[in-house]
Specification:
It is a single chain. By secondary structure, the protein is an alpha/beta fold. The protein has one domain: Rossmann fold (3-Layer(aba) Sandwich), CATH 3.40.50. The chain has eleven helices and four strands. It has helices spanning about 5-10, 20-35, 45-50, 55-60, 80-90, 110-120, 145-155, 165-175, 185-195, 220-225, 250-255; strands spanning about 70-75, 100-105, 160, 205-210. It has a four-stranded parallel beta sheet with strand order 3-2-1-4, with helices on both faces. Strand 1, helix 5 and strand 2 (about 100-105) form a beta-alpha-beta unit. Helix 3 (about 45-50) crosses helix 5 (about 80-90), helix 4 (about 55-60) crosses helix 5 (about 80-90) and helix 8 (about 165-175) packs across helix 9. The structure holds pyridoxal-5'-phosphate. Its cofactor is pyridoxal 5'-phosphate.
């Protein structure tokens, strides 16, 4: 409901199906081929045309100086391709002279692109996605797999992955600076940390981590983390409230 409440509130006609993303995707393909409905998913190349403006905005915000790396969380893999397309277009137009190296960051629980990259781009196999806090990228059979591979090969790109513990710790670490990020952004931040620690991303490199959703859509995961209520997770950056009796003396005792 946290994800659905915005279209519901805006008056959309919403169907809730008892399946995962890949199951919905299979049905959506069928339904849109039978009915004159407009598909706004990234199967529709017009959606990607719109998404590529994010690449142009990054370049503009960097005063047209190309960052060395752009890290994007990936599930259905439309975004990573759209970023590539946007950067490539700016290069073709002569606005910039190179494009950033792209990093696609996946949740280890839904990592078909990561496995494909690790195999040296050998045969691609979809996976059955396991549950991840980064629920928007809980996808085992990405629609835009070929586009993503093309984007990564042509940008000297890399695929990284983040375990549930890594992505939740990264989210908590970012939030502690005053941000309020979503778990997908935690996946991308984990990729940055791993690539920086392994020396792939150099200290002087400029890297952009794309934040794809607002943390307010993922408050339950943050509540569980800070309550240390996630099974088999240390939640080492949890910052739970101190329970204090509602009297002046007890409150003062906490401070002194
Ligand atoms: C919050 C969030 N993060 C990341 C993504 C990943 O984009 P893609 O599925 O195009 O790889 C999506 C896609 O809808 C998303 O909603």
């Amino acid at each position: 409901m946290a994800q659905l409440v915005q279209p519901i509130a805006n008056g959309a006609f919403v169907l809730s199906l008892d399946t995962d993303f890949d199951g919905c995707m299979r049905l959506v393909r069928k339904v849109t081929s039978e009915l004159p409905t407009y598909l706004a998913n990234s199967l529709n190349s017009l959606r990607l045309e719109g998404q590529k403006t994010a690449a142009i905005e990054i370049l503009q915000q960097f005063d047209w100086e190309v960052p060395d790396w752009v890290i994007v969380p990936g599930g259905n893999l439309g975004n990573i391709y759209a970023f590539y397309k946007g950067f490539h277009m700016c290069k073709e137009l002569g606005i910039v002279d190179r494009i950033p190296r792209l990093v696609c960051a996946q949740a280890a629980n839904a990592n078909p692109l990561y496995l494909h990259f690790q195999s040296g781009w050998e045969d691609f196999s979809p996976v059955k996605a396991k549950t991840t806090f980064a629920s928007a990228i809980q996808i085992g059979d990405p629609v835009s797999i070929d586009r993503a591979v093309y984007a990564l090969k042509n940008s000297n790109g890399i695929v990284e992955e983040a375990t549930e513990e890594e992505l939740m710790d990264a989210m908590a670490q970012a939030d502690a600076t005053g941000m309020f990020i979503c778990p997908h952004t935690g996946v991308a931040l984990t990729a940055l940390v791993k690539l920086r620690n392994s020396g792939v991303i150099k200290p002087t490199d400029r890297a952009v981590v794309v934040s794809t959703a607002h943390g307010l859509k993922f408050t339950q995961s943050k509540i569980d983390y800070h309550s240390k209520a996630i099974p088999e997770m240390a939640c080492k950056l949890a910052n739970p409230p101190v329970n204090v009796k509602a009297d002046f003396g007890s409150v003062m005792d906490v401070f002194f």
